[in-house]
Amino acid sequence: MTTPLRQQPAALIFDLDGTLVDTVETRIEAWLRTFEEFGIPAQRGEVAKLIGSDGRRLARVVAQAAGRAIDDGLSEEIDRRAGEIYSELNTDPRPLPGARELLQALDGMGVRWAIATSSRPEQVGKSIDSLELSRAPTIIDGSRVEHAKPAPDLLLFAARELGVEPSRAWYVGDSIWDMQAARAAGMPAIGVASGSATAEELEAAGGLTVDNLHQALPMIKTRT
């Protein structure tokens, strides 16, 4: 069930890959190369559907589909290697339409915001730099919690960092895992059809969907 956007948001929390920066295809390629290195058959479509979820979980799901059970140690190793390859490939990330403008507008309006990403901390720097922000943002990465998305831990941690109740924060993401995490956290969610899921999939997962972040700003302004 979608949590409605009735109240004005005390803060916004954003996913990174596929929401603020155009890096989903780079993520997919990194995972496919990683599975090839580990001798685990993987299909692009299968991996694409899992982008945005906890990397260790992604590794286990793909391995299981290939008929191979992996333990926690190997899933951690695969996730770490996928991050290394991603960092090598992610040389020129580009902000998605409306991302920089929206974040700047929130600062101008005095609305607090943060980024909550399942990525490891060493993977986010170039993408953040591409946004050319006027200040260093609050970032909650996958190393800060035991369970990343679709668990709500990242979002709840971000809400605490921002000093707001989860129900007063809006979460903005591009994957069904983002929508599921927001629902589990009790946060209203905006799904941006710019990354790993279609508008129909985002709506089914509980998000109020927009095509890009340009469309999100009027929604925020009418409630602030």
Write the layout of secondary structure elements.
Layout: E1 11-14, H1 24-37, H2 44-50, H3 55-65, H4 72-89, H5 99-109, E2 112-116, H6 125-130, E3 139-140, H7 153-162, E4 169-173, H8 176-185, E5 189-192, H9 199-204, E6 208-210, H10 216-221
Search tags:
224 residues; alpha/beta; six-stranded parallel beta sheet; 10 helices
pLDDT averaged over residues: 92
How far apart are the termini?
Answer: 24 Å
What's the main sheet like? 6 strands, parallel
Order of helices and strands: EHHHHHEHEHEHEHEH
Outline type: globular
Helical amount among residues, as a percent range?
40-55%
- Neighbour order of strands in the largest sheet: 3-2-1-4-5-6
How much of the sequence is in beta strands? 5-15%
Cα Rg: 17 Å
How many separate helices? 10
Structural class: alpha/beta
Number of strands: 6
Which regions contain 5 or more consecutive residues with pLDDT less than 50? none
Task: Provide structural commentary.
This protein is of the alpha/beta class and 224 residues long. The protein is built from 10 helices and 6 strands; from the N terminus they run E-H-H-H-H-H-E-H-E-H-E-H-E-H-E-H. It has a 6-stranded parallel β-sheet, sandwiched between helices. Helix 6 links the parallel strand 2 (112-116) and strand 3 (139-140). The mean pLDDT is 92.
Could you give a short description of this structure?
With 224 residues, the protein is an alpha/beta fold. It has helices spanning 24-37, 44-50, 55-65, 72-89, 99-109, 125-130, 153-162, 176-185, 199-204, 216-221; strands at 11-14, 112-116, 139-140, 169-173, 189-192, 208-210.
